[in-house]
């Protein structure tokens, strides 16, 4: 976690599956451990594990709006695809000789996290600033005015990172957990664009139950640093349709989109309610100082013409 340290190291929060299991009966000094039949021990262990799973799932579903837990569709923490020939575009497709934009100055205050780090343990995984980040919108199931809301959120993240975003229009592609980063039959000889899709929980159970949206990106490497090349934003269409009916609700949808697009470019959740990347809905509608600090640094990623 960064807190007013412009060049500090990012702390990667643990995944829910990490951590040790607590002992069922820690023996106190001078006391004898109770002895139970093995069948009873197995039953008790299973009950404790089941209760723990239910409590964890309940915690994941608490709240709405920006309350997405860590993005489920991106590669597992620490895993980066090697992008061998045949699974990536022709090297250099869309690459420019230098960065297409300039990130704004990064505030020295605030709290931010990166979703992924390079091998040095400090530099964040980011998009290539020498290429445009293309994006498409799936209009099916989207609320009225969705394209305007998404375009506004994209513009806000573009300004905060200095990255160049290009809207490639609409698509009929849905968000899936195994979405290929390279889809030449659909998008041509280039990395697939970032996909923004509004889908009801009945069609995509990865939203709903308190999860308003999810967002993130896939990273690849070609002998150099890891680079994000495409990503997805999935929004609960039922939740968005209900909120988008009022100006205040549209503000909530816009904040959700900015939050998820910040995940897409590489920001993680923080435990600071004053930042938009706080994991739970608390009425925050604007990027905080730590959000802006992290996003400005993510706009200074490495150019990778070999990808």
Automatic annotation (TrEMBL):
Superkingdom of origin organism: Bacteria
GO BP: proteolysis
Cellular compartments per GO CC: extracellular matrix
Biased composition (Low complexity): 19-30, 89-100
Boundaries of every Peptidase M10 metallopeptidase domain copy: 236-282
Keywords: Hydrolase, Metal-binding, Protease, Zinc
GO molecular function: metalloendopeptidase activity; zinc ion binding
SUPFAM superfamilies recorded: Metalloproteases ('zincins'), catalytic domain (SSF55486)
A Pfam family hit: Peptidase_M10
Residue numbers spanned by region Disordered: 1-30, 82-112
Protein name: Matrixin
Taxonomic lineage: Bacteria, Bacillati, Actinomycetota, Actinomycetes, Geodermatophilales
